[in-house]
Amino acid sequence: MSQAPTDAERYPTLSEEGRRLLQRMREHPAAPIFRNQSGNRLLAEEVTQLRAYEQQVMAARFEWQPGVPPPWLAGFLDAVHAQVPYFRARGRGTAFEALPTTDRGDLAADIARFVPDPVPLERMMNFRTTGTTGHPLVLPSHPVVAARYLAYHKRALARFGIGLQHGRGQMGVMLLGMQQRCFTYVSVTPTMDESGLAKINLHPNDWRDVDDRARYIDQMQPEVIAGDPISFATLLQLPLSHRPRVLLSVSMALSTGLRTALEARFGCPVLDLYSMNEAGPLAVHDDAYGGHVLLQPGMYVEVVDAAGRALPAGQEGEITLTGGFNFCLPLLRYRTGDRGALAMAGDVPMIVGLQGRRPVRYLTANGRWINNIDVSHALAPLPLSRYRVHQHADAGITLHLPVAEAGLADDAVARLQQALDGRAVQVQRLHAEDKLLQYTTDLPEGFTA
């Protein structure tokens, strides 16, 4: 685009009351410094379609069990091999279980080859992931795809008897970050009668007065607060009086201790969602069954070994995905890098023993802690295919780089040292060829308790 979009383009169906809500969220005396602008970009007919889609998702049942593929799989395979350049070039000619797996590295190498031919480019959106657990990615999406997330969040909430109520003139969802640099904005949700949506950063740098963080949340009174364990750990420290109806933890693994502290402080359920940018909300933890119950009936999940062979229920391996609701990026035997075992929670498949992405903090030379996402931002300008950052028990830092990228070491060290307030960084050869645990630490305080 040659120029920034207008509000009319960001919010095609915006009413006058919705405009006033946007203004109130942006211009409240305690509002943060919103550094970006975003919108739903949904057309009127798409809003109608999304309401119907949400009803379908809420009523849909899983048609598969571990080791027993769904009836829609054959048609899905026909479509992706005919329409997706990457899979068309690779060829089919084998049973599903014998198809080669794909991973984040394949997407990073040439994401355009994973977009189906029929997808129109005019309204496609691309967004960059932070790469906290592997290769940084630019992922294809669409306004309708982004809006579909809500249907699966509602399905997760409904499992625990929670139905969303906030609508026009109210803030429905507040998304939290806790990073030195964070994408922040306000928007409205047309399928919820233009309830408000705000992404805010709790880092002090994004506020005129640090005490405004609590004031703004208390004034906006969001029905749902979503964040990751690092932002929730900061939320616990704020003198809030507002009590949301539910907290949603996304992106990273939520510890039992932090969940218990959040529930005690805010007096509401805290749902631990297993979610990723490549696939959206995948599962929600259910204490009654002792695992993460799946949310997407249109996603077939396998657990595979190192060779890509599907493992039986109850056996731990790598979580692998086929299907999904992002029509710009259909997944086929996509290895997530996360581990667990498959089981059943009644008539719904679930993942037990999920070993997902745990947030990591790093202690800088000045004695402060920084988020692993801040480390990712520091190294993002460099064309690194993979790397690992480890903090030792003595607080020393080791940066692991592939041999082929040794020429980037000096620049990478300089950037990392700047983020770490000058802490010394040593470089070692990275031996791992597959997706690796990218951020690690030997300091117990480096993990959100």
UniProtKB/TrEMBL annotation:
Database matches in InterPro entries: AMP-dep_synth/lig_dom (IPR000873), ANL_N_sf (IPR042099), CapK_Type1_Caps_Biosynth (IPR053158)
Question: Which residue ranges does the record assign to the AMP-dependent synthetase/ligase domain?
Answer: 202-323
In terms of SUPFAM superfamilies, this protein maps to: Acetyl-CoA synthetase-like (SSF56801)
State what protein this is by name. AMP-binding protein
What is the native source organism of this protein? Answer: Stenotrophomonas capsici
